[in-house]
Amino acid sequence: MSKALIALGQRLSRMGYRFTTVTPTAQGIVNRRAANQKARSLVDIFGWNRPFSADVLAPGLLELMQAAEILEAEPGTGSWRSTIRFSTIDEMLFAHSAFPTTKRDAVFFGPDSVRFVSAILRTAAPAARVVDIGCGTGVGGIALRKAGFVQRQLVLADINPEALRLAEVNAVLAGIDADIVGSDVLSGVEGEIDLVVANPPYLRDDQHRLYRDGSGEYGEAIGVRMVREALRRLRENPRGGSLLLYTGAAIVEGADMFLAALVDDLRETEVRFVYHELDPDVFSEELAKPAYANVDRIAAVFLHVQVGRR
Questions:
Q1: Are residue 37 and residue 169 in the same domain, yes or no?
Q2: Using one digit for the tens of pLDDT, what is the confidence trace for 115-149?
Q3: Could you tell me if 131 and 276 lie in one domain?
Q4: pLDDT of 53 higher than 90
Q5: Domain tally for the chain?
Q6: Whose CA is closest to 43, among 31, 25, 60, 32?
Q7: Burial of 142 (0-12, 13-18, 19+ CB in 10 A)
Q8: Within a 10 A sphere around the Cβ of 221, how many other Cβ atoms?
Q9: pLDDT per residue as tens digits for the range 165-190
Q10: In terms of domains, do 154 and 255 share one?
Q11: Packing angle between helix 139-146 and helix 111-123, nearest 10 degrees?
């Protein structure tokens, strides 16, 4: 865990820092404006991720960034750039990767994170043991813990070590306890589970970035695997349990490819589910790529599954 990164986040919170992260496309457009070529504020540095000079920072912040090893020199300019961004949802602060998120192990945070949190907070019921799989920044599980839905234990699980590092930082910043577990979906999580939450990757990505590449024909494969593994583990709990999953679905000639892959699993007798679109059209720029040549649109969708008795 990076104590310096935690100290930096805590300092930003005390200073009233707030930032809502936009889509990568929107961030690129705003940052290319002539007036935005250099940072003038904390939001410019840690939100918009613009190059900055040391004199923009309050005393002590540059030293904290150095200690956290998140300073990157801009060659030939005398400027710096932060390799970590900070974004907020309500009063919660989350550290995540720099813009643009091109590295394979980048940890993403954006409008999907906000929609995910909103959907699970509207739907969740209190549960003893909650597991956030593919947790990324930990935003889903942390939001549930802060809202009082986690009665006993929160597990933040991910296959990406950088995600686990930042999830641990973010849990401390939120003032909550969480178990941080390296896990490929649920393979590394032991014991009974009462609630699974997930926001799996759902795009086809040539760079195979972990937060983005959902594999399969349309980016649906990892999400489908998460649902199937969650159903199996929830069946093993005598009390039953629930799954709350936010993802994206390719719509081809009116058919939802994510739901089509799961419909037989969801029709099992002990499974009850509700499935609906939250947004009919996200990441429309992906439709210009060859992998989406026959896709009409990509929809943001939400799946609520209950297994057995509660």
A1: no
A2: 999 999 999 999 999 999 999 999 999 999 999 99
A3: yes
A4: yes
A5: 2
A6: 31
A7: buried
A8: 18
A9: 999 999 999 999 999 999 999 999 99
A10: yes
A11: 40
